[in-house]
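Quick one: structure for this chain?
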Amino acid sequence: MTLPDVTALAPLAVVSPHLDDAVLSCAGLIAGAPATTVLTVFAGFPPARDAATPAEFLPGSTFWDQAGGFVAGDDVVGLRRAEDRAALAHLGATPRWLDFLDSQYVVEPGESARPADIAAAIRAAIGELRPTTIAFPLGLEHTDHKRTHEACFLLLEESPVLATHWVAFIDVPYRAVYRAQADLRLVRLRDLGYELEPLSFDIGRRKIAALGEYPSQLKALAESTANAESPEECFLLHR
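Got it. Here's what it folds into:
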């Protein structure tokens, strides 16, 4: 089955590990499918910590937050959610945020979400959104990306009827360095019985404008954002 254009995938739900990953990786897909919702997994507010908590786990003080220009005491998640909303507005999409804790803020083992927990939360959200298409990352290198992929893979295996269509996208900017991981994930999907049809998009000015709404993340990513200018790699799964 070949779809004539990406609008046939609408409404679309894009599962994003963090508050920027979907736009970095598949802005063309998001912009091309009307009524898209970006469902970000690790968008939860860190719990209150006691004075004994090491600073490197606290919002504004982690290595990544400092690289993004934040300082201790900043409402990092609140500010990043605001960036996300503004970015998605350029693409005509709506954000929806889950409350799982970004791994950089995890202090206790029990705070780290399991793929099964993430899958259950995604399933609940999908039940409300009722999208025609679910798009998910291949889950390269970063632990949060890997867990997001595993959660979506569980859903694809157990409940493929959650959506009429499924799309896998390669994580940007990780694809630049971890191409072998991406290839293995694609093989895994083929082993599940899926053919992978590449989708192509005109990235255009809307992606540039959307990315510009993530100033903290652009600062932290620095030179690696050049990878976002290359053609996006999304694959329609069908049997």
